Amino acid sequence: MRYLLLLFALPIIGCKYTENPQTALKQVIPKKQIVLEGLNHPWSMAFLTNTTVLVTEKDGSLVKANLATKEKQIIKGFPADLTDSIRAIHFGDNSGIFEVLLDPNFTDSPWVYLSYTAKKDGLGTTTKVVRAKIKNDSLYQHETLLLAEPYTREYFHYGGGMTFGADGKLYITIGERLFWERDEPEIPISQDLRDKRGKIFRINPNGSIPDDNPNFGPSAVPGIYALGIRNAQGITVQPGTSNIWFSEHGTILGDEINILKAGANYGWPNETTGRLRSADYTPPKLEGTQFTPPAWFWHQTVAPTGLCFYTGDEFLHWNNNLFVPGLSRGSLWRFTIDGDTIKSAEELFLDERVRLRKVVQSPDGKLFLLTDEDNGKIIQIIPQSK
Amino acid sequence: MRYLLLLFALPIIGCKYTENPQTALKQVIPKKQIVLEGLNHPWSMAFLTNTTVLVTEKDGSLVKANLATKEKQIIKGFPADLTDSIRAIHFGDNSGIFEVLLDPNFTDSPWVYLSYTAKKDGLGTTTKVVRAKIKNDSLYQHETLLLAEPYTREYFHYGGGMTFGADGKLYITIGERLFWERDEPEIPISQDLRDKRGKIFRINPNGSIPDDNPNFGPSAVPGIYALGIRNAQGITVQPGTSNIWFSEHGTILGDEINILKAGANYGWPNETTGRLRSADYTPPKLEGTQFTPPAWFWHQTVAPTGLCFYTGDEFLHWNNNLFVPGLSRGSLWRFTIDGDTIKSAEELFLDERVRLRKVVQSPDGKLFLLTDEDNGKIIQIIPQSK
Which residues form the Glucose/Sorbosone dehydrogenase domain (chains A, B) (predicted)? Predict the structure, then answer.
C-alpha cells in the first residue's frame, strides 16, 4: 500500500481542491503489520532487493527470506566456529549471530559482512567479524576481518554492531564482555587500549587499518577508533552527513545514544549516566582523561539496540528522524535531531510492546522492525490514515 | 504566519504538480516564540478573543493582556481573601491564583471562573472557587462556588485545576494538601469521603450539585465525583467526546495521567505508581475498595500540569493529540490516543527546558505555553518548515 503524501509550505497556486479542506486534513498514523514469522531471535537484516533480505538469527542461522512470498532459506557456509545461546546454555547468554551488511558496492563486489560469537575449545568465546562472498545461497571465500581476542568464558556484551561510514570504512562495536564491574582488571577493560574489548573499531573493508585512524600510541591495538564502551549493539550513519550514531546498553539505567567522534572516550566504567552493578567497585582515577558525554540518556531502562535514520516518504514528519528500538521496554523510540542536538524523543507502540532488536529501512524507504523472540518476526510499520 | 497543510491518503486525480515531489516533502517542525514576558508565574489563560487573554499569575494578579500589542492590565476586584507564595513565605509554597475559565456561554453570560488560595486569619489556607462577572476590567457580583475546607497550615497541593465538561458541568480538582504521608489521619484524607481534599468535584456553574452525580452515601461531602487524588492541577475535555483527562503529581515518581470516571477512586495514598515520601508510613487496608489505574505514568519525575488536546491545523500530525507540560523536567509531552489507550508519548523541546505550568489552545487553533518563572512568559509554538 502506498500513500502519496504532499505537504506545501506555501499557498498552492493553480490547483483547485473541491474537497472540504478539513476532510483532507487526515492524520497518518503508524501501524504494525507482521510481514514474516518463525525466525529464531532475528538480530539484523540486509536488503538484497526491496523484498529479498538476508536475516541473521541470533539463535539460528543466516537466512535468506522473501518478504512477499514468505519463502525462507538457510544460507550455507556460515563459519564453523559459531556458537550461540542454544548451544552454550548460559543464563542470559548474549552469544549468536549478530550483524549482516552488504558491501556498499555489492553488485560488483558481492561481499557479505557478518559479526558473530566465535568459540575456541577450552578458551571460551569472543566477537568475530568476517566477510564472505555469496553465490547460490552459499558463502565462500571467507576472510576474517577482526577477532576481538581474548576468548573468555564471559557470555555477555559482545557488541557486534556494524555499519559502513560515509567514508567507506567499516565501523564495528565490540562490547566489554563483563557482567560485574568487580571483575574489572586494574585498568578497566574498556579503558585499556591494549585490549580490544569495549571499543569501536574502524577498518577497511578488507580488514586492513586505515592510515587516518586516531593515533593512540604504539601499545594500542590497531584499528581502535573510540573507547570506553560497555555494550553498543546499534551503530548507523546519519544520511546526508558523515555523522555516526550508536546506542549503548547501561547497567542500572545508563542506556545511552552517542555520536561517534574519532579518538573519543565514552567513559565506561569511570563515567556513566547509570549506576554500577557492583556497588563495592570504584574505578581507578584516570588522570587527564576526558570523557565524551552522550547525546541522550534515558531515565528508564530500555536496552537500546540496532538504530537507523528514516528517509522514507510514508511518514512525512519522521523525515531524517533517528529510530531506536529497545529490548526491555519493547517500544520504538523516535528522535528529532538538529545537528548534534536531540530536540524531541517519542516512544511509539506503547500498547504493543515486544522485545525489539533492530529497526531497518528498505531501499524504497519502508521501515521494518525485528523482534527478539523464539517466534521472531519482521514487522513493517505501515501508514494508516485516520 | 500560516501554512496550508494538505494530506491525501489516496492518489490525487485531476491535479498536476509541476514541482519535484521530493522538494514538496517539507517537514513542519515546532519552534518556540515568546509572545509576552513579565508575568509573575502565570498559571492559566483564557481567551477573550484570539489575541486578548485573561491570565492568572500564581504569585500576582488576574491580568488582561493583548498578545498583539503586548499591553497588560490588572483586573480589579479579585477576592480579598487571596493569599499567595510571596505573602506566605513558606519554602515550596504552592499557594496563589490558579485556574481561570470563561463561561461556555460567555457572550450572554459574562462569568469568569477562578480558583485560588484563600486564607482565613488564624486558621490557614485552602482552595476556593468563585465566579464573578467582568466589565470594564473589573470583577463584580462575586459568588463562591466551592470552599475546600478545612483551612489548614499546610502550604502544598491545592489542586485548583478546572474545566467545563461536554455536559456543561464544572469539574474541579482539589489537592490533598499534605506533604508527608506520615501526617495522614487514620483514614487517609483522599480516601475519606467526609473530607473535601484529595477529590475531584462536579458542580453546576452556579455552585449547586447536579442530581446525576455519583452517590457516595449520606456522610459524603456533596459534589464529589472521584476520589483518591494527591495533587491534580490539569484537567481537560477530549474534543468530540465527553471524556475528561487529568494530570496528577506523584511523590517520588508517581506522576500520572488519568481518565476521569464517575465514582472512581484513583488510589492515593494506598496505591500509587510512585513511592511514598514517608518510608515509615503504611496506609490502612481499605477492604473491598477498587482503585482505577492511570492511563499513563512516567518513569521519571516531570510534575505534569495544565494539559490540553490539540485541534489546530498548523501541525497536521498532532491532530487530537494530548499535550502535557511539566514543571520539573521543563519539557512538553505529546500523547497520541486511541480511545482510552495511549499509543505514543513524545517529549518535546528537550534542549529548551523551562518550568511549564500550562498549555492552552486559542480559539483559532494556535498553541501556547505558560512558563513558571519570575519573568513568566507566554510562548507560542509556531510551525517552521525544514
Answer: 39-379
